[in-house]
Design goal:
Length: 741
């Protein structure tokens, strides 16, 4: 291989719109990306250069990933077709548009297909917001694997590239909640040629141009944000080095070995992985009281190490798939290493063995600049569903048709949320001009617009243009959160650009109101009382969503969320500015039940806090372990990857039994008579029968009303001296669902 400096090694990103347009750009812009051969004929196409396969309905709007990627590739001159929600029972639907000249791009859609189809109790959902008329069962389980295999069956010679949230969260061996086991990387299961993780723009544009220039996909190995299968022990060039994950973050007291890749451990230094176990059993820890360093790959051949390893030419070998299946400690250690290597400024390539082959992950993509973000969102979107759907209603579109995505990424690092694994922690913001222009497009082109913009946001409402004060510090940082356990001194928390954006947005002619629907990071907002006042005075439509998630220190620490004191301070400002504005407004807090690190008494204390503050929650959520999230590693391994992982390290309290998960959820709806029998049993077992009774100090009554065997759900919540709020539905934007964003 050529040893000259590649984009992967230099970390320098080629500008997204600097490529020479592909020759097919002469066909011009398609009204909608075609979904049939008839549409291709109208456009004068004999074939598609790229065909995108998605589990969602095709909505030509920038909030939907396939439309965004498709229009970007079109702007590069490629002919792009879309196969939406194909019948996966045979390969016939995947032949609809013929064989693509360059590749199939496969995605499950805006959401992980398993999260989309199943509740946290593993029950099939009755509807699908991304499907016409919310019809369920229009996509398979693990859609990326199924679609990719069908593409391969339809055209064995075609290149198959997988991506989106589902592929991103399954790029290495991962715990799968729905099957309750550790599964392989999605790459070998899907038989795909390449996986593009994270925000795909840079990688997919570069890949398309290089394939069009005649390169073979098996030879393209230097694109950041990509993963692929390689022979065991493969390295890109002779000057690359491979190190073991234990050298990055040693699991336990460090024991130096003369050769970390020796065929046998040194005498007297046997490792934990070598402990004896019966076939099929997890390895047992040795009898020694002193924990020893974990040994990962004694079967590997030795590599000559450079005296001082260059990060851009170094790969880290994670524990293999077989090892993380057998050993929860190694799984937790692999999770910790994976997340430490997540900053595109200093991340190294990762390797994980799967049998006789390796999954190779290049470092994460370089974030887009503001100008590049503007270019991506400037494509000629129709901002509506494809005409093939007729008058069918698509709930996801109805929810975002008047909303605008102003940024991507999140530096919060909440352990239960997958934004960091997918979009990254570095905020990528659009320019003010680009956002205001989109508001004008909504006003002028979107049917049904009455003057209300429903959201200016993204994964969070108030991280627009927030970043590290020093780019050098940002590039070197290895922390998983900029705001936990406290807000970093190096973080710029100036909300002035966002305040200015709000003011200009609501000043646009024809715009009556601009609401904020994305979740607010209230600990950041406290740094700018002026922002809180602006928000509360002009941009709250009676209710504001925030996410304290819990009140107790233990769960909050395992979530990497701020203490409840920050919520109390924000509520004080919220009430103050609401009163000054002469408005009656309410906070809508969300909480998670059964999160790792949560004890029964923690949920009880949360329930008592809810009652004390007159909250009666309607929609509540139980922790859902999504692939590769840190909290999922806690759930599976009962270890805490936020700290060094050893055989005798911190044990994480984990609620796994379905009954106890129901109990924890019931505490959040302590006021619902249907939950009272379950809670009475739980309180008696906890020795807190004193909370059963009819007084103000009691949590639930001792009697059971007649007819409460049926669910009598209440809408909204009661707050402020027992005053009934108007009914409110606390749903989440389909653009950024929690845990899969």
């Amino acid at each position: 291989m050529n040893t000259s400096v590649s984009p992967l090694q230099s970390g320098v990103a080629k500008p997204l719109f600097s490529y020479r347009k592909f020759w097919a750009g002469r066909f011009g812009v398609a009204p909608f990306l075609p979904m049939s051969r008839a549409e291709m004929d109208v456009l004068g196409w004999d074939s598609c250069d790229i065909i995108l396969v998605t589990g969602d309905a095709y909505i030509d709007h920038p909030s939907f990933g396939m439309a965004l990627v498709g229009r970007l590739l079109e702007a590069q001159g490629f002919r792009v077709g879309i196969i939406s929600q194909p019948d996966w029972l045979s390969a016939k639907a995947f032949r609809t548009l013929g064989q693509p000249n360059l590749f199939f791009g496969v995605t499950s859609g805006n959401m992980d297909s398993m999260v989309n189809r199943y509740t946290s109790d593993r029950k099939i959902r009755s509807d699908d917001a991304y499907t016409p008329n919310a019809e369920p069962n229009r996509r398979p389980d693990r859609a990326v694997v199924v679609y990719a295999q069908r593409c391969r069956e339809a055209f064995p010679q075609a290149n198959v590239v997988i991506g989106s949230i589902e592929a991103s969260l399954r790029r290495i061996a991962h715990y799968d909640y729905w099957s309750d086991k550790v599964r392989r990387s999605v790459l070998p299961d899907s038989k795909a040629d390449m996986l593009i993780f994270g925000s795909a723009e840079r990688a997919i544009v570069a890949l398309a141009h290089r394939l069009a220039a005649g390169e073979k996909i098996a030879e393209i190995r230097d694109l950041r944000g990509t993963a692929f299968m390689v022979p065991r022990g493969w390295l890109p060039a002779s000057d690359w080095s491979e190190i073991d994950a234990s050298d990055v973050d040693t699991p336990g007291p460090l024991i130096r070995h003369a050769d970390p890749y020796a065929m046998q451990p040194e005498p007297g230094k046997e490792t934990l992985c070598a402990s004896s176990a019966a076939p099929g059993e997890a390895p047992r820890a040795p009898a020694q009281a002193i924990p020893q360093a974990i040994r990962f790959h004694p079967q590997l051949k030795s590599h000559t190490r450079m005296p001082r390893l260059e990060r851009s030419r170094t790969a880290i070998r994670l524990p293999s798939y077989e090892q993380v299946v057998a050993d929860p400690v190694l799984y937790a250690h692999a999770s910790r290493t994976f997340h430490i290597e997540s900053n595109p400024g200093n991340a190294r390539a990762l390797i994980q063995a799967h049998g006789e082959r390796d999954v190779w992950l290049n470092p994460p993509p370089i974030p887009l600049t503001t100008a590049e973000m503007d270019g991506v969102f400037a494509a000629p979107f129709q901002r509506k569903p494809h005409p093939a759907y007729g008058e069918a209603k698509i709930p996801a579109f109805d929810m975002i048709r008047f909303s605008i995505n102003i940024m991507r990424g999140c530096f919060g690092g909440c352990t239960f949320c997958s934004i960091t694994e997918h979009e990254g922690r570095i905020i990528q913001s659009r320019s003010e001009e680009s956002i205001l222009r989109e508001i004008e497009e909504i006003r002028d082109r979107t049917p049904g617009f009455t003057g209300t913009i429903s959201d200016l946001g993204g994964p969070t409402a108030n991280m627009y243009r927030l970043a590290c004060k020093d780019p050098k510090i940002e590039a070197a940082c290895r922390l998983l959160s900029c705001v936990f356990p406290g807000i970093c001194d190096n973080l710029n928390t100036d909300h002035a650009p966002l305040i200015q954006l709000y003011r200009k947005a609501r000043a646009i002619k024809g715009v009556k109101r601009v609401l904020i629907g994305s979740g607010l990071r209230y600990d950041l907002a406290l740094r700018s009382p002026e922002y809180v006042k602006e928000l509360v005075t002009h941009h709250v439509g009676g209710y504001l969503k925030i996410a304290p998630e819990h009140t107790e220190e233990g769960p909050l620490a395992h979530m990497m969320k701020p203490g409840i004191g920050a919520y109390d301070e924000f509520k004080r400002l919220f009430d103050k500015f609401s009163k000054e504005a002469g408005k009656e407004q309410y906070l809508i807090p969300s909480f998670i039940a059964a999160h790792p690190g949560t004890r029964d008494v923690d949920m009880l204390n949360l329930a008592l806090w809810l009652k004390q503050n007159n909250f009666r929650l309607d929609q509540v959520q139980t922790f859902l372990p999504t692939p590769m999230a840190i909290a999922t590693a806690m759930y599976h391994t009962q270890r805490n990857p936020l700290r060094k992982v050893t055989r005798n390290s911190e044990q994480v309290e984990t609620v796994r039994a379905s009954r106890m998960r129901r109990v924890h959820k019931a505490f959040l709806r302590y006021h619902d008579p249907e939950n009272w029998p379950l809670l009475r049993d739980a309180l008696r077992q906890m020795g807190r029968a004193d909370l059963i009774g009819s007084g103000k100090k009691h949590l639930i009554p001792g009697f059971q009303p007649a007819g409460t065997g049926l669910r009598h759900r209440e809408s909204g919540m009661i707050q402020k001296s027992g005053q009934q709020n108007p009914k409110v539905q606390t749903t989440r934007s389909p653009r950024t669902p929690r845990g899969t964003r």
